[in-house]
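SAMPLE LOG
Freezer: B-3
Tube label: C17
Construct: single chain, 233 aa
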Amino acid sequence: MKTLHLDGASLSLDDLATLARGTEVRIDVTPAALEAVQRSRELVEERVRGGDVVYGLTTGFGKLKNVAIAAEDLDRLQENLVLSHCCGVGEPMPAREVRVAQVLRLNGLVRGYSGIRVELVEALVRLFNAGFVPVVPQQGSVGASGDLAPLAHMAATYMGHGEAWVRGERQPTGEENSRRPSSTARPFSSRHSSKAAKVTGAPLSSRTRRSRPSPSAARPSMGRGDPRERGVT
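STRUCTURE (predicted):
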């Protein structure tokens, strides 16, 4: 079985194609990447201990950016961020596409810029290798900040909300289910971790094919044509 060694830099299109074809693979994270994650986490802990104002970590979001969040409410803030964006609708995305998104999001997280804990990375790797695939609705993202709704549904399954496929069997991920001795769908509790890191990005809506030339021709603004010609979408 092929193993993808995630380091935040070397994941290739061939690797993603292998995943998209439904080929069974395992993943791990390189030691250097884990060290980068740890350094990033230590910075977050330092800021929280020092009482620093950090958007989305010790403050609210958007219009509430100037509202300070009490230390005892930091975890709830992060959980509420995820759950408030679980507004997807429609049929679930194909499991193989979600698996690609899982790897893409994790590969971005291990670059060491998100302030998450090493334990979370290890848990995500463990779940992926156990055949855990979040059930993610196909529609609902606003698109202005990437895949907010789809990634929120993905993150929620890791927290014990919603459903996931585990080795092909669709099952709930809540606490009741996690008490089964054989269950892999165990909720992960994260301590003032940056949930924004889990719901930011576009691993689910990114295109895998070239754009049609007609939209760029209709709006010939500077910068639209060149990326299209290069196949960057």
